[in-house]
């Protein structure tokens, strides 16, 4: 009898673990497979709110654009489930900064529904009408960033690739550090921020329909005058979250 109870207990535990691995979007942050470092980041990134706002669902195919170390790629993996797919994309510059973290995260096919892709902005290699959602977390301003080590970006070509890769009704989610109002793209160069009003108009002009905003990552104490890498404001910046639909 004890053996029967033990077997039933093991089966129940196994079922619980399996359901946790590919959980609903609102459960992904509690997945037992997530690292302590990621859970610590949750305190300032609030991914539970972000993922639910995005509308990601099981079975979707999602692109995590400039995914860096893959923090969001992993949670998206759980959210879309075994019938979904996540493309965790990065480029050579980001790979130099966060590649080791990404390699460790995806080692030994740990997240089997995630494809890791290294490609450049000018040719992302996306298939037409293949994606349900594109997520850009704290990287939209890089379209307007310029430096010797950063590839020059053709803004129109970039958005054309994103728009073409999304299915009709596909979703674009953009999170970024907010700059002082009416500064356009100027803060992207020095502070790694961008004017949120400009961002909305820019993305709308690229063929997307604004579908809402979340206030989850707002910080009214951020004067928006410091670089996002300044220790005084790092991980505490005032951030906007926008959701768009492919027109």
Short description:
This protein is α/β, with parallel strands linked by helices. The protein contains eight helices and seven strands, in the order αααβαβαββαβααββ. The chain has helices at residues 2-21, 36-45, 47-54, 71-80, 92-106, 155-165, 186-190, 196-205, and strands at 61-65, 85-90, 114-118, 131-137, 166-177, 208-214, 239-246.
What's the count of strands?
Answer: 7
* Second rung of CATH, namely the architecture: 3-Layer(aba) Sandwich
Structural class: alpha/beta
Gyration radius, in Å: 19 Å
What series of H and E elements makes up the topology?
A: HHHEHEHEEHEHHEE
What does the largest sheet look like?
A: 7 strands, mixed
Q: Strand order across the biggest sheet?
A: 3-2-1-4-5-7-6
What global shape is seen?
globular
Describe the structure.
- The chain contains 8 helices and 7 strands.
- It has 247 residues and is α/β, with parallel strands linked by helices.
- The protein has a single domain, classed as Vaccinia Virus protein VP39 (Rossmann fold), CATH 3.40.50.
- Strands 3-2-1-4-5-7-6 form a 7-stranded mixed β-sheet, with helices on both faces.
- The radius of gyration is 19 Å and the shape is globular.
- The model is unreliable at 1-24 (pLDDT under 50).
């Amino acid at each position: 009898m004890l053996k029967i109870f033990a077997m039933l207990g093991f089966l129940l535990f196994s079922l619980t673990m399996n359901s946790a691995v590919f959980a609903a979007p609102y459960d992904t942050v509690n997945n037992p497979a997530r690292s302590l470092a990621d859970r610590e980041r949750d305190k300032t990134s609030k991914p539970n709110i972000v993922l639910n706002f995005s509308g990601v669902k099981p079975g979707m195919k999602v692109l995590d654009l400039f995914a860096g170390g893959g923090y969001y790629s992993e949670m998206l993996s759980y959210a879309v489930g075994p019938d979904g797919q996540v493309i965790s994309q990065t480029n050579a510059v980001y790979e130099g900064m966060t590649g080791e973290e990404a390699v460790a995260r995806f080692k030994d096919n740990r997240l089997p529904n995630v494809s890791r892709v290294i490609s450049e902005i000018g040719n992302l290699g996306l298939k037409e009408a293949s994606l349900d959602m594109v997520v850009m977390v704290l990287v939209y301003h890089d379209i307007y960033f310029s430096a010797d080590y950063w590839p020059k970006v053709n803004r129109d070509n970039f958005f054309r690739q994103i728009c073409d890769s999304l299915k009709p009704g596909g979703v674009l989610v953009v999170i970024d550090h907010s700059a002082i109002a009416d500064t356009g793209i100027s803060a992207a160069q020095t502070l790694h921020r961008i004017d949120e009003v400009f961002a909305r108009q820019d993305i709308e002009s690229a063929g997307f329909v604004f579908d809402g905003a979340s206030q989850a990552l707002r910080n009214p104490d951020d004067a928006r005058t410091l670089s996002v890498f300044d220790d005084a404001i790092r991980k505490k910046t005032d951030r906007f979250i926008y959701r768009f639909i492919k027109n």
